[in-house]
Amino acid sequence: MDLAANPKVYGVVVLLILSFILGFLYRDNYSQAPLLLSAATVTAADAELHHKFPTKCAEAVPPAKVRETIIQNVFHGESPWTGFPPAHAKPLLLEKFAVGWGSNAAVFERLIRRVRPRTIIEVGTYLGASAIHMAGIAEKLGLEGVQILCIDDFRGWPAHADAGKVMEMVNGDTMLLYQFMQNVAAANATESVVYLPFSTTTAMNGLCSWGVYGDLVEIDADHEFHSAWVDINNGYRVVRKPGGVMFGHDYKWEGVRRAVHLFARLHGLGVRRDGEHWVLY
Ligand SMILES: C[S@@+](CC[C@H](N)C(=O)[O-])C[C@H]1O[C@@H](n2cnc3c(N)ncnc32)[C@H](O)[C@@H]1O
Predict the structure, then answer these.
(1) Domain-by-domain residue ranges, the chain?
(2) Is residue 235 packed enough to be buried (19+ CB in 10 Å), middle (13-18) or exposed (0-12)?
(3) Which of 65, 86, 103, 124 is the most exposed place for a label (fewest CB within 10 A)?
(4) Quick one: fold of 58-280?
């Protein structure tokens, strides 16, 4: 057939050739690439990775230098309490609004009496209820120079503001950090409380790299298994050894319980229950 003499057929052939060339140029290279991994290559060592957290942290800074270390590394050397509350936040804050869960439980006083800590690391602080409670116990017992390091991203969780019912949202922000600060200020505890406003992992990596260890480390952030698992592993790195104690809230949550038990088994530790809390021995 004479293609030139039949423009329709000619057009179709040209289109076909063009589609072939375009298809070739933009072909899916990934489907051609060799498979790097398949299910068959997963080994027991892969599962092992879940248990492998770095264990070494920096040489311990003396307890008397802990507050200064945090202020230097987190707040460029200036105490976050200076000039608090800022004028724009003041009208939005409640004089005191420190709700929590099991925040005044007897375990705090029992452990503080037993360990007589200089540094307490709280992983999950919310509005500061348990931190303020611990600051009060330390004062009552006459412990000097105690620093409570509060780790929280101060985001709470979706809809936590509904649970609180009282705090104002400002452009979608629940003012959790400022209300926590206000609560600590109202309790006259700013000299013994300082905070790290980051994710628990980021904050504990910081403590580890600066050599900041806790005589007491309390785990009370997210309670799903994987979050609790990571917090417990990271938390244990910054427990002062020997002598430090790690404990946490919400033993009744299945995820927390599984993470605590797994950790204890892997590290040859015991677990005791103290009310709603767990304590590692
Ligand atoms: C149960 S509340 C802490 C209550 C507090 N210990 C008390 O008794 O008053 C949990 C807190 O953990 C914080 N949190 C949860 N997951 C976190 C994460 N991955 N990083 C930082 N903070 C987190 C939330 O913002 C929340 O304020």
Answers:
(1) 3-39, 58-280
(2) buried
(3) 86
(4) Rossmann fold (3.40.50)
